[in-house]
Description:
By secondary structure, the protein is of the alpha+beta class. It has helices spanning 14-63, 162-198, 200-213, 226-272, 277-302, 317-330, 352-369, 406-409, 426-436; strands at residues 65-66, 72-73, 90-96, 101-103, 123-130, 133-145, 151-161, 314-315, 337-342, 347-348, 373-384, 387-396, 440-445, 452-458.
Amino acid sequence: MDNASPIKRRPLSLAARAALATGFALAAFLGLTGLAQNKANYASELSAMHDRLHNYAIAYITGTDITRAGKVTTPDSQPNPDFSRPGSGLYAIIVGNEGFRWESSSALGRDFDFVRMLAPGETAFEPVETRSGKLYVFSYGVSLDSTEKRSVPLTFAVAQTEDQFERQVATYRRTQFLWLAMLGMMLMLLQLFLLRWSLLPLRRVSSDLAHIERGARDHLDGPYPMELTVLTKRLNAFIDSEREQRTRYRDTLADLAHSLKTPLAVVRSQLENDADARSLRGDILEQVRKMDELVAYQLSRAATSGRRTIASVEPIAGHAEDLVQSLEKVYAAKNVLCEFEIEEGVTFPGEQGDLLELMGNLVENAFKWASHRVLLTARSVAKVRGRAGLELIVEDDGPGIPDDKIDLILQRGVRGDERVQGHGIGLSIVQDIVKAYQGELHVDHSEELGGARFSVRIPPA
């Protein structure tokens, strides 16, 4: 059974991510808001019902009298017509001593045995479960005096069914849900509009990049918001770097082809002539040597990769030790001592290949011309946004370089001394690398060792 490779899901777009995150946050906010409002409304409705039942009880207390004989006369009028309509859900009960009990017409057929006597001045408001359903009951204990100064203790109870209260709460909830839903939809539409407007610069960058790919533009010209300026500058630098690299490769191949044309023509003509084997062999070897030098020259030139827009950093110390150990073997006969003054943690703000070419050519040149001592110094300079540049100094105790020959030895193919073996391209490669990294190369006299001093300064990436 073949194992089907899982299909990779396409990552959500920035707009979709922002819309989902905002939607969840908005739903949570509106949900918590609705819950808080519901609780506040429930407490408010419960307090309003308490006040309403309390007022009904006061109305009944005001309308109740005690006769001279001590009998209780109930009020003829009701504070609310529902007290006169059976089963209305609003009930009034008056209880007293010696089995006195009065109930409003609405309480017909209802059981209110739970109503108990309260001490004068005592009140109670509580929910009560009955066979007919839940009731909210407000009770008020009073003591009424007759004309004979006879006190009669009574308890007035006013009750309302839960249905009325729940209907009011449910009505509020429906209205609240409708408005919150409408508000949520309006806010989501507004958020989508704002997201589309906010991400418009990114879509503009994407469109401009497409124009660059089609050759309609050379760079990202903008204008772009401040947050995208650094990105677009880096992209423009990357585009320039890639174009320069393509140009360099193209020029290198053209130069190599042109350079090899003459030696190949010579070899071909020698093969076509009737020359003796010894002479033919010598001529071909000479041309092969020249082609080897040309290939080495062009490959060294192509190796100058230049600064990358997004580059890592390379530590100096390890590469310097490996390089010097190799050169000490090559120049063992000269017994050259190489000293280090390398700052701890110093790095090269670029590619490893460029570091090896830069440092290798400088140190090898110093070994080639030194009498006995070479000094390699490396330290960090010009820190920007947490990144540091590099200052690399190579000195020797050789004969030095006259001031009038400094510009000459930096040219390609020119050697300081024709008797010294080499291709004459090492220092020119150094100059190309330094230029590619927007750095500086300075050649002068070493005060400490007396020979030449090469100072390279590379700015932070």
